[in-house]
Amino acid sequence: MPQDTNKDVAYIKEWMAKEPHLPTDFDDDLIIKFLHSCYYSLEKTKKCIDRFCTSRSQMVEVYTNRDPISPHMKTAFSITMVSTYKWGESEILIQKFTDPNMEKFVFYDFLRTHTLQGEYWIRRPFLADGHYIILDMSDYNLKMMSKINFMYLRDYIMFLLEGMPIRVKKIFAINAPYFYDKFYALIKPALPAEICDIIHFFPDHESLYTIIDRKCLPTEYGGEAQSIVEQNKEWNKAIIERRKIYLNENLWKADLKKKSKVNGDNTMSGSFRTLAID
């Protein structure tokens, strides 16, 4: 971490205070996360924070009605698992869908679980040099395609890559089913080329061994790290313990009525934060 981080944090706090549409509930640790994810570029950090806050206000379908103990959210959490693992100075995040019969899957509720998991994730103290996202597609099926709003999913993916305080290096989709190309074809045309370049599909989890140190992977993938199932239980417990925070539907949201046209829209000129890519 650069020695003048405190000075940078103070600068960002002063900038946010002058922007009437931005929230006032950012603490220093969260600002440091954004600075780190943007390689301490003040201008990129400002754009990333604006994107983050503005999109949270615009994406009402997934940033409202998120009580983690409500029946619809408990159902959504029952079909998704998440876990993270350190790999040197980098961090691996694994997302796994677990509803092969598509009996419980509701698209927007599924994304709501991702928003809560993401918020818990970015509040953890580790400042990773890079993030490697693993999507386990073993339980994906063709029924899912009819239940997904693919344009919304595309926008959500862009928000995660441009607005979240993370440094995405690669996205690995493992255990890809035979129809994965049809699934991907509905999203790929709308994604910038530099994002497509970091997405890779593999037919199994063993393919990861040539890229990631095997011992850093969970036991389900032949590694030595904590089981996905066990760690996911810890995540769910932690999210419920923070329930009061997530019941605040204005958390980290921009006031769109106060956002001036001078600020432009919520995108980063349609480009990904290229410095986050090797």
Automatic annotation (TrEMBL):
Transmembrane regions: none
Listed name of the protein: Alpha-tocopherol transfer protein-like
Gene that produces this protein: LOC112054171
CRAL-TRIO domain span: 133-229
Origin species: Bicyclus anynana
